[in-house]
Amino acid sequence: MNDLSDKKWLCIELPATEYREAWRLQSDLVAARKDKSIGTDVVLLLEHPPVFTVGNNSGMNNLTVSKKSLEKAGIPLIRVERGGDITFHGPGQLVMYPVIDLRAARLSVLDHIEKLEEVMIRTARDWGIMAQRNLANRGVWVGKNKLGSVVIAIRRGISFHGMALNVNLSLEPFGWINPCGLQEIAMTSMEQELSHRVALDWVLVAVRRLVDGGVWVGKNKLGSVGIAIRRGISFHGMALNVNLSLEPFGWINPCGLQEIAMTSMEQELSHRVAMNQVREAVKRHLEAVFGVELVMTSLSELQCLQEKELRVAGCGLNEKLQGKLSLHNRSLCHIS
């Protein structure tokens, strides 16, 4: 499997898509992931026209109006193979369907669900909305009101369906059901929590950047993370924009993301930032985050350390350093 398929997800932003069409597309992608004709996990981002969906093992007792009422409103009711009970999708709700090989991604089902919740929690926080989990009922909540839902299905180890975040949709249809089979709960949206319109396009960017990773200042990307793993050993790493020219980023879609801007520490501060100071800060934070001590060395000393049986004494390193390397398995840091 190539490096792209190991470390990158393909992200497709669809226009408003009928539920059955998106469902068929997910099923096709699940089959393609399973037979390896697509070697990369895929994320679909979209909105649906108004539709009610209900899990395959659920009854209709949580539909609180007649089916004729739905027909009159022109809203279809579709039974699907996912878990969960009845819910509503409509314009103004951001839906994300990750089609993921859980085993290859080394994710348990619970890990996957919690990560989808975390994407919504962090996205809401970008707008100052303090959403949180409710371990008794999956999804994300603002107080006693539900802001977003997570429901998945798994077929031959491939996860599909996903999450739905209420941005600025009409909440009225939720009043015709017991959402997710829960009685006496209210649904909410980002627009309702903020009492003003929220542009779904900007929420889409926020969700996409959480899936992409890296670090951001507002809507601009400051640093990237990209790793590879070979026989259990991780390499490559991170890149932090300190004072470089940003012009070449304008020649590409950075990290495969369209309509984003890159930034740097210098641009954010409007003055020159010394690389050596940032280097020292990164080393300090690396030690703190990973719980290691960086022992300074050189390439020549490192080459000596690679010799059979790690003959440290013959490398010209002092006895104190030898003790650190042998007893504490400290990390090595080369500063060019």
The CATH topology of the largest domain corresponds to BirA Bifunctional Protein, domain 2
Structure annotation, total helices: 11
The helix content, as a percent range, equals 25-40%
Query: In angstroms, what is the radius of gyration?
Result: 25 Å
Question: What is the CATH class name of the largest domain?
Answer: Alpha Beta
Biggest sheet details: 8 strands, mixed
Q: What fraction of the residues are assigned to beta strands by DSSP?
A: 25-35%
Shape: globular
What average pLDDT do the residues reach? Answer: 81
CATH architecture of the largest domain: 2-Layer Sandwich
Summary of the model, kept short:
The chain is of the alpha/beta class and 336 residues long. It has helices spanning 3-7, 19-34, 67-73, 102-105, 109-126, 190-194, 200-212, 265-269, 275-290, 299-305, 319-328, and strands at 10-13, 42-46, 51-55, 77-80, 86-89, 93-101, 132-133, 140-142, 145-155, 158-166, 186-187, 215-217, 220-230, 233-240, 261-262, 294-297, 331-334.
